[in-house]
Amino acid sequence: MQDEAPSATAGDALEVWIDQDLCTGDGICAQYAPEVFELDIDGLAYVKSAEDELLQDQGATTPVPLPLLQDVIDSAKECPGDCIHVRRVSDRVEVYGPDAE
Ligand code: SF4
Questions:
Q1: Are 24 and 81 in contact (CB under 8 A)?
Q2: 26 lines ligand 1 (CB under 6 A)
Q3: Which among 16, 20, 28, 75 is the best mutation to test ligand 1's pocket, defined by most ligand atoms within 8 Å of the CB?
Q4: Does the beta carbon of 79 lie inside 6 Å of ligand 1?
Q5: How far is the CA of 12 from the centre of ligand 1 (A)?
Q6: What integer pLDDT is reported at residue 7 of this predicted model?
Q7: Number of domains forming the structure of the chain
Q8: Domain presence at residue 101
Q9: Cβ(90)–Cβ(75) under 8 Å?
Q10: DSSP secondary structure of 21-34
Q11: Which is nearest to 77 in space by CA: 31, 29, 33, 40?
């Protein structure tokens, strides 16, 4: 496994979602990228819209802002629940997360 081999090329629009069924609520993602992830009062992490609104529908996605890409990738890598999924918007292929190749 190569650390520096991104499976997405620059310019690919990416989005991220969380599988709350597996979230442990430790909050690592919210520490790494508080602009994108937040813990709700139910103790689980959710993605946020660009307007800072918590998105609580199951499988809800939010765009990954390019400046935050590394923080989001690190969150996905370190997520103890393996439940942060980053995928290409164009074909919905997961590029970081448990279902990435
Ligand atoms: S890092 Fe993963 S398990 Fe931890 S709060 Fe975030 S989504 Fe949940």
A1: yes
A2: yes
A3: 28
A4: yes
A5: 24
A6: 57
A7: 1
A8: no
A9: no
A10: GG-----HHHHH-T
A11: 29
Classify residue 59: in a domain, yes or no.
yes
The CATH number of the domain holding residue 77 is 3.30.70.20
Ligand 1 atom showing the smallest separation from residue 32 Cα: 1
| Domain assignment of residue 39, given as a range | 23-96
Global pTM reads 0.90
Task: Indicate if ligand 1 lies below 6 Å from the C-beta of 82.
Answer: no
Rg of the chain taking only CA atoms, in angstroms: 12
pLDDT, tens digit, 9 for 90 and up, residues 41-94? 999 999 999 999 999 999 999 999 999 999 999 999 999 999 999 999 999 999
Secondary element (H or E) of residue 40? none
For atom 1 of ligand 1, the residue with the nearest CA is 79
